[in-house]
């Protein structure tokens, strides 16, 4: 099993969710996060005053899937979330040793 962590632009969330559902992903976790990468924030003007926005709002998706689905999920997220502009996001893949469905006590692949 693998945990796919994707950080994307907020306005791409619904489009990415629909694309993942279309390829058979049955569940995901969504968090609103803030951060910065190469874009290092930006400056904005509010009521005539300029200020620096150090942390950019993003959406973090966490998806636990079988190892055989990893490439397809990465490709789907990458193509759907891409705008071609800086700040499109990142995707990380991490091994998952164990999963348990609390309601039924199913384990590992059966739990996801």
Features:
Alpha-Beta Plaits, four-stranded antiparallel sheet
Please explain how this structure is put together.
The protein has 112 residues and is an alpha+beta fold. It has a single domain (2-111), classed as Alpha-Beta Plaits (2-Layer Sandwich), CATH 3.30.70.120. It has 2 helices and 6 strands; from the N terminus they run βαββββαβ. The protein has helices at residues 13-22, 70-81, and strands at residues 2-8, 29-35, 42-46, 49-53, 56-65, 89-95. A 4-stranded antiparallel beta sheet has the order 2-5-1-6, with helices on one face. The chain has a two-stranded antiparallel ribbon with strand order 3-4. β3 (42-46) and β4 form a beta hairpin. α1 packs antiparallel against α2 (70-81). It is elongated and about 55 Å long. 13% of the residues are buried. The mean pLDDT is 91.
Topology:
Layout: E1 2-8, H1 13-22, E2 29-35, E3 42-46, E4 49-53, E5 56-65, H2 70-81, E6 89-95
Antiparallel strand pairs: 1-5, 1-6, 2-5, 3-4
Helix pairs in contact: 1-2
